[in-house]
């Protein structure tokens, strides 16, 4: 089906601007920390309202640098959702801290604040770990419930590091992603709402001291060449060429975001009532990075769409607690019933900034048909 592949379809529109931006870098050849890097950081600060944007090598590094900057380490508990990509849990573990997984809200699929509160209390009372931070994930573009999370964070003195890999451009209670947590980590992996042509990430914060620490930590823990090393840091910079690609794409970002919102509304009109869809709470506007459909007919939906040349994806077929690397945390299969049920039934439909309306309509018809057929078969069997 034409126009369903995000990167190829977008390329038809943005090729000229991207080539011009990359050519400029090839001319000045400052491949590390060239002028595009700072220009991009400033543009992103303007877009999000964050006081500081510090770019880095990937979204995973952005999470790692954020947690490093506030001193997360051994003996501490960091609370995060069990239903996400592994990056946040991985960063917590890399620093020697312990990830404590929490179940999700059945309608919005983001961290459940009541279960978070319960997990923090249980950890304080029944383990030797010191609660230190929360890493909520704005899943598929829907911001976590920050008002409720902040109540828990304030009561227990926890830093909120927001995983906004999916949610650049989203809003919560009139505020844009980038200022919702104490620190926000963004990814520019090619398939994210603002994707580079390689890896990239950024740390966003209103804290002067966190920003300054991250700026040093991304270049081996010093202010720059000739300065002493005062932290154990990383080599994690955004390549100048990737900054150039991102600057080109920023010109289209808002228009693409609006288009994704339009497509999501069209999907909802066609599919709502027939299948469960991810809820966008009243005080939020999702960035619609991924469009979720929840159905018992997942296999049929995927097979029928594949036959029409439409790619689908499943995020996430497994809970983080089921990953072999977290087996030693000793969670049971029944510890996260909401996430577990979702992981067996969720599937993602194509959704991107240049998806033709005709494709949304055709995909919706295909999904409707798959579900009807599946339902008929299963009731007559
Ligand atoms: C992609 C992703 C990341 C990590 O981003 P990278 O840039 O690939 O390192 C973190 N969290 C979530 C939820 C993601 O989807």
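^ Assign residues to that structure.
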């Amino acid at each position: 089906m034409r126009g369903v592949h995000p990167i190829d379809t977008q390329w038809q529109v943005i090729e000229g601007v991207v080539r011009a931006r990359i050519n400029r870098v090839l001319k000045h050849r400052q491949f590390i920390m060239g002028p595009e890097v700072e220009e991009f950081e400033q543009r992103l600060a303007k877009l999000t309202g964050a006081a500081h944007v510090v770019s880095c090598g990937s979204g995973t590094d952005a999470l790692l640098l954020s947690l490093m900057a506030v001193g997360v380490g051994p003996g501490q508990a960091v609370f995060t959702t069990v239903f996400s990509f592994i990056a946040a849990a991985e960063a917590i573990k890399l620093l020697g801290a312990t990830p404590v997984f929490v179940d999700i809200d059945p309608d919005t699929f983001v961290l459940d604040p009541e279960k978070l509160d319960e997990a923090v209390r249980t950890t304080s009372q029944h383990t030797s770990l010191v609660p230190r931070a929360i890493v909520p994930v704005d899943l598929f573009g829907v911001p976590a419930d920050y008002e409720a999370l902040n109540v828990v964070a304030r009561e227990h003195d926890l830093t909120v590091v927001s995983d906004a890999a999916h949610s650049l451009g989203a809003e919560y209670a009139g505020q844009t992603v980038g200022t919702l947590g104490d620190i926000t980590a963004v990814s520019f992996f090619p398939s994210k709402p603002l994707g580079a042509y390689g890896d990239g990430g950024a740390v966003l914060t209103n804290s002067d001291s966190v920003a300054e620490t991250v700026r040093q930590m991304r270049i081996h823990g010093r202010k720059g060449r000739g300065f002493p090393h005062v932290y154990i840091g990383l080599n994690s910079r955004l390549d100048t060429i990737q900054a150039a690609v991102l600057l080109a794409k920023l010109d289209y970002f808002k228009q693409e975001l609006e288009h994704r919102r339009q497509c999501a509304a069209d999907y909802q009109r066609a599919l709502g009532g027939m299948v469960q869809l991810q809820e966008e709470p009243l005080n939020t506007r999702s960035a619609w990075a991924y469009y979720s459909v929840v159905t018992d007919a997942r296999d049929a939906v995927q097979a029928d769409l594949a036959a029409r040349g439409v790619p689908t994806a499943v995020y996430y077929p497994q809970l983080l607690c089921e990953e072999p690397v977290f087996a030693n945390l000793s969670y049971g299969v029944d510890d996260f019933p909401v996430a577990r049920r979702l992981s067996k039934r969720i599937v993602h439909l194509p959704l991107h900034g240049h998806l033709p309306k005709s494709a949304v309509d055709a995909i919706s018809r295909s999904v409707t048909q798959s579900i009807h057929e599946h339902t008929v078969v299963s009731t007559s069997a």
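The chain has a mean pLDDT of 97.
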